[in-house]
Amino acid sequence: MTSSEQNEAAASPPTPLAQQAPAAESVPLADLVETRLAAASLGEPVKALLTEALGSAQTLGNSPMGRIFLDSVSVEGFRGIGPRAWLNLSPRPGVTLVVGRNGSGKSSIAEAIETAFTGTNMRWLGQDATRTSNWRNLHDGAKTEIEVKLTVEGDSGRSALTRAWTGHDITDCVGTFRRPGHGAVPLDQAAWKQALTDYRPFLSYVDLGRMISGKPSQMYDSIATILGLGHLSAAYSHLGLQEKALGDAVKAAKNELPEITAALYALEDDERAVQALVAIETKGRPDFEALDGLVAGLPSDDDGLLAELRAAVDMRGPDLEQVGAAVDRLREALAGVEDARLTGAEDALQRAGLLEKALAHSNRHPDEESCPVCGTERVLDAAWAADAGAQIALLRQEAKTAEDARSELRSAARAAQNLIETPQWIPAALTDPWNDWLACRAISDPAQLVQRVQDTALTLADACAAVKDNAVRELEKRDERWRQLVTRLASWTEKARTAADAEPRLGHVRKARTWVKTLTAELRERRMEGFTGHSQRIWEKLRQESDIDLQSVSLQGSERANVRKLVMDVTVDGEEASALSVMSQGEQHSLALSLFLPRAATADSPFGFIVIDDPVQSMDPAKVNGLAQVLHELGEHRQVVVFTHDTRLQRAFTTQELPVTVFEVERGKASKVNVKAVTDPVRQAIADARALASTESLPEAARTHVLPALCRIALENAFVEAAWVQHLRSGGSEHDLQSAVADADKLMKMAALAFFGDIGRTGDVYRELRTRCGPRAVDLLKQCQSGAHATGTRIADAHRFVTEISELAQKVRKTEVAK
Amino acid sequence: MTGAASTSIDELLLTADQLLSDPSVEASAAGRHRGASLALRTALEITVDRTLDAAMPGLAAITTRAKMLCLRCYAAATTARRANAVWSHLCLGCHYHQYEIGPTRDQVYSWRAEVSELVRELPR
Questions:
Q1: In terms of residue numbers, what domain contains B11?
Q2: What was the ipTM of the complex prediction?
Q3: How many CA atoms lie within 13 A of A56 on its CB side?
Q4: Span A720-738, mean pLDDT?
């Protein structure tokens, strides 16, 4: 390392331009909000609400796809362009100038890009039809078509945006967007439609003038969108709608409450009304279960008056038909018993027993024919035995009849008594007759029983019917009043239930809203600060020796206020003044750039590119240098395509050693427009190296140290380009890329990114380079590297060396990533 | 050599100042601005020579463009870039260009400030 290199490391921080990167180029809003939400100390329901509200607002601004860069533009039969003309760009951050004389067709290309995206053109808006009617090229009227090839960050193939015309009017056109893996969709459906308005990546001299001379409220709107808070404010209104709906529900229930309670108090003697009041006034939350029961008319299990009435209605006295049948049966049984007693059934049974024993005795002693009782001879013969058997059967029959009659009487009495039941509850009016009825169960004498059962049953049944009728009438009267109230109660209950569910939600929604509001205010201030800072930095570069200081830019009023305006505080030689009145046109134009370049560069924009047409017009020569610096800074993060007829801008880039790609537009016969590549950062470096190599009597040190260093820059630039291509294809870490740009070992890290998409594989670079470009390439790279060291490198033929480097650089640019 | 060079650098800067601010110098404003640019450019070139001399013997004969390219290896990158930028601007300011009005007083003043800063910053 030479002493001056140490100097360099100590004296200058790596790429100060990158460090000043505008604050607008920070985190996209959606990501920021997500992070803040995750960290917020809010309850889960509140967070869920916010996620939902933010999610529903999502579709408004942010595109779900990667950042878009311009790859190439082809234009046919449009404005000043006849046969198809191409402009091939590098789809990555960096500045490209498209230069050409007035009328060369360069503005037609710029307008074509805008028209491809938006279907119209700022220059035409509000113009008379005669001015816009010549949009179709006169030389080649057959076909008008614009095709813009796009590289979407992370996509492996290119997307294409085509706009073709179906009619003669400028508006008769259809835009189609084809993205690999997503098919073709009408442009209206492309995700970045809204973003085209919000971040408008097209700036021309004409619309810069129009923007700056717009109404204060219009300017407010065009700046407010870049703060990217539309997303938040959409979520805020979404939550606002919810808050209103929930608040209304709560209010509805609350407003009706006094009326409904008054009506219930009027029905104080109705248990249901009392229960409803108790349910309504339950602490915390009304007892909806009880209210539902009341509304549905379900019986409650209490023992109030209403329950007694209902029980009285359901009261079942003795069933007279059954009682009658039982009494009849009892009477019959009594008569049967009486008959049996008359026939002497008992005696018959005993005689049968005696005869049976005698018969058994005679059977045991078949030879003995005399009676063992009276001693009479020869009486117990076979004829006697047969007669005795018949007697026994007869007597037994008689005895059974008597037994059956007694048993039937017992059974009939039991049956009659079984009809007597004790109910769970006996109304007071029925106590006596019911007790008399119950007393029948204790009567044992069937004759008495039959009389009492009949008497008490009749009395009780009459009493029951009377009580029941009375209860039914009473209930009906009460139900009528209740029915009138219950409909109202039902409707209130529904409202109150909604309100009760709404109340905790309302609390959450309010909290969520407050959170969004606070965050919006904070972000607005922070982003506005960043934006103002960026505007001021640009203004400092563009104002040069102007006396006007841009003190601050602020948004006055809320987004919906009628009086909202963009306020630009400027001072002229320290005196406060109104911005627009004190500025020359050139200065106004610079101010517009100061305001709208940061807008196009905001992190939320899905566009990686910005197209600027003719920014140099009416600018002082000194301002052009500042403009080149501004564009260069913007080019660190954005693909900046500038169309200009003014050669001063290109010169401002080269004299300030700012890397730039330049195309020249030339117009041939019959509107044949050609775009020719003039230079780019690789060629710039090669041209420097070539200039040194051509220097006569070049000192030895310049050859051993300076020449390799200049060549190294050419290779670095080639690798940067290849690394970007790799990055865009496979969507690697942009942070790695940006950090490698600032690294002392930039060349090797860029090569590792270009070859492998992996900043860590610098060790494999030489091997990969040998495989791809041959062993000589490795030698060349090593020579460039060692030129930076104290030893330097020995180069025999300076011109040949530069040529070889140039060839290698071209190969590197076309690098494909290793599989 | 170094001493003589310092003197002449200071003298040149002084000359530029006089041309810019002293109305007694009899010349048109445009002429005085161009003259000042010329003085400043020479001062810058001497400063760059002074930086490169030590590291690169035999430097004297090569073009200033080549010197500016070499300067990148012997001074901080930003300083070298600024030197080249202001040198390029001064070159434009020294010459008559058909479509451009000459440098304004403020512009030359800002170059004057830049050159004197570079005189201090460029290593000897």
A1: 2-121
A2: 0.82
A3: 14
A4: 81
